[in-house]
Amino acid sequence: MTPEPERLSVLLPHRLGLLTYRAAEGVRPGDVVAVPLGGRTVVGVVWDEPPDETIADARLRPVAGRVGDIAIGADLRRFVDFVAHYTMTPPGAILRMVLRAPDALVPPKPLKALALSGTAPERSTGPREKVLAALADGPLTRKALLEASGASTAVVTGLLKAGVLEETRLAEVPPPRPDPQHRPPHLSPAQEDAADALKAMVGAGFSTVLLEGVTGSGKTEVYLEAIAAALAAGRQALVLMPEIALTPMVTARLSERFGVVPGEWHSGRTPAARTALWRDVATGRADIVVGARSALFLPFDRLGLIVVDEEHDPSFKQEDGVIYHARDMAIVRAKEADVPVVLASATPSVETRLNAESGRYRHLMLGTRHGGLALPDIRAVDLRATPPPRGEWLSPPVRQAVADTLKAGEQALLFLNRRGYAPLTVCRRCGHRFHCPNCSASLVEHRLRGRLVCHHCGHEEPRPRVCPSCGGEDTLAPCGPGVERVEEEVRALWPEARATVLSSDLAGGPQALVDALGRVARGEVDIVIGTQLVAKGYTFPRLQLVAVVDADLGLENGDPRAAERTFQMLTQVTGRAGRVTAGGRALLQTHAPDHPVIRAMVRGDGEAFYAEETLMRRDGGLPPFHRLAAVIVSAAEKAEAHAHAAALARTAPTGEVEVLGPAEAPLAVLRGRYRYRLLVRAPRRIMLQPILADWLAAVPVEGTVRRAVDIDPQSF
Ligand code: ADP
Ligand code: ZN
Description:
Blueprint: E1 7-11, E2 18-22, E3 31-37, E4 40-47, E5 65-71, H1 74-87, H2 91-98, E6 112-116, H3 126-135, H4 142-149, H5 153-161, E7 165-169, H6 189-201, E8 207-213, H7 219-232, E9 236-240, H8 247-258, E10 263-265, H9 271-283, E11 288-291, E12 303-309, E13 317-318, E14 324-325, H10 326-337, E15 340-345, H11 350-357, E16 362-366, E17 377-382, H12 396-407, E18 411-415, E19 424-427, E20 444-446, E21 451-453, E22 460-462, E23 476-479, H13 483-493, E24 499-502, H14 509-521, E25 527-530, E26 543-548, H15 562-574, E27 585-590, H16 596-603, H17 606-619, E28 626-635, H18 638-650, E29 658-670, E30 673-683, H19 688-697, E31 706-711
Parallel strand pairs: 8-15, 8-16, 9-11, 9-12, 10-11, 12-15, 17-27, 18-25, 18-26, 24-25, 26-27
Antiparallel strand pairs: 1-2, 1-4, 3-4, 3-5, 6-7, 13-14, 19-23, 20-21, 21-22, 28-30, 28-31, 29-30
Helix pairs in contact: 1-2, 1-10, 3-4, 6-7, 15-16
The structure holds adenosine-5'-diphosphate and zinc ion.
Zinc ion is lined by residues 436, 438-439, 441, 454, 456-457, 459.
Organism: Acuticoccus mangrovi
Binding site for Zn(2+) 2: 436, 439, 454, 457
EC number: 5.6.2.4
């Protein structure tokens, strides 16, 4: 037998990271422990790293003991180490993302309850009888008892004093388990084949599979079968969604399929709900979790499958704090746990598609819509030939199509990926423009709230009546459309129609949004004016027409990924039309009907588009053919930021590693800080992290300078 180690490493969930302590009996890697740090006691996790043997025994402080009853599994520990290394973040900062719900480490105290003591009451009154009857089936909390019996507090207290009731603790009822066979679907032959392939992968170790299928082909239906297989094998499943707004829909489908509401993990949940779910995941009582990016860091007890839905979605990239791509890290998490990961999309990212084509990923395809429905008929509306009236945004062909749709009793979606009323406000007399004081961005008018808002930092100010620069009265003019402005036009054109705006800043918060989505799904809305929030995932049965107000939006900026993004967005949003009933159609308002993206959309030729994109990436030395990283330097003063970035450029690595820049970052000023960016590029076989680490270490950060490394940046 090997003797117990005398010292061990403990990873603390912050930048201090790994420290060495004297071991305590029975404490093992993965255990959550309390350790002394200075004059305090802090919580950390026993880590696999060998302890520091150079510290003198006398200086070594002992582990105080275990905290709670949950251990962090070896696969999750390896994942933390990987993410730390890959994103060049101290591992403690990653561990903090795991220990998100510290209260969940210890079992919750059972609730106080009241029960019958067995002593009969001396006097029997109506209310007393009701209390006794309510408790006949077992103990209840005081609150539940008052509700169930309708009796007053005084009656209950009286019975307690008389010894008829006694205090007890409520035995915990385990949550109901999902049933893999609760409501099995009738799959089409193509769905069946894909589902069989996925089921065969569950339990057979790590693999990555791209589940590609046009919008409405039933990908969700197929991956639900993979989840059923995981459940049947006694394993847990994680479904990652790019946006919180999409979780209720998946949750509803999972509930229907398996008869139990899955756990939801995202920032919209209360701390209490998160604590409960974290613990249920760790103890294996939560079988299915639907979550945002951060759900990757949950301590699954027996993970069996990960699904990344809408894998191409840019929202999977976390740009704040630890910069990571949740789809990429999901693959790593699956690898460490030795389980399959399913990437689902109608419009996979170029990276994922290439991996599927090269055979690194398995590739499952659903070629047609479920039930043989055709994809919507997509046409471009050339705004140069048929422009809208001045100061308005809907062209004659779109107006006609909406009118026809209304007449047929169907639903129309007008899509514009711009929140608010107008993206820019200008004084007609002096040309004054409203800029964010903290960012290099225009303030967006939100007319409903009467405010000008920065969409980057949240700065808000009231919209003045008088120009602050020239004092002109009623000279301020909105420029360009946002969804609120399109709504105004819709109400003027079709006053009888029931119209609604759906965007993330809907008054009333997440619940209002869920309610509004329900009304749209039930057909209680005729015209939806929506941002990207409604572009993906949803099935609105009556929706037959999608009109894209500005299909060029996003194509103008210089980012090589812009074309791919726009293609994905347009495919997603047009794919909302005709999902249940035949005859769906889509119109794209554009000034550039010959742009490759618009042409690919109209022809329905995604293959040609991907082929062209792939060539462009290869010839341009872009991912996935080359590796990229960005170093973002920010500081309170522009000169300070520039000087630091320039110093980095002077000491940049050479040879096969290229450093481009510094250039102003895509948002040159953000939250009051000036930002420069250096782009690092290298051939695929070169790992960038060690090179970056050496380079950056030689140029220390001083003054107000801050540096962030973005591995695999989303914009190049
Ligand atoms: P995707 O995820 O590919 O966009 P969904 O799984 O959401 O597609 O399916 C689109 C629509 O078709 C949904 O309303 C879904 O309920 C329905 N559907 C798909 N497959 C089936 C099936 N086998 N049986 C019944 N309805 C199905
Ligand atoms: Zn701002």
